[in-house]
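Repro:
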Amino acid sequence: MADARENAIREVVRGPIEDLGLDVESLAVSSSGSKRIVRIAVDADGGVGIDRIAKASRAVSATLDESDVMGQQPYTLEVTSRGLDAPLTAERHWRRAAGRLVAVTLADGASVTGRVAGSDPDGVDLTVGTEPRRLAYDEVQTAVVVPELKPRKES
């Protein structure tokens, strides 16, 4: 659970991040010696490349420096993408995973691996093998994208 400082920082940085078309996926503040470390993970439809990460980092840094939310204590800012191994926990994660292979553990303990065919506010459509399967979000205990290495085409 986020503390008051993390909530205040989240409120300050949300605007500049959203102005870049990004979502704040997570924000954490920790201490390292006399410094604080602010870690922010962002995501967007279509993914987040290094250029967008750099723009977000500059915008957030300027915003934090202009506000008093960090106080006088020095800090290090780390802005990253949410990462391939981050769990699919929100509808937008499923939408962004369209076409990807996912491993799902269901609430009843069963597991299924399939390709995301689509999603909406009520659930996700998977293709398991060649069969379609509909899952309501409340049926999903955990879900992650399965990394796939595509074979090189021989020339």
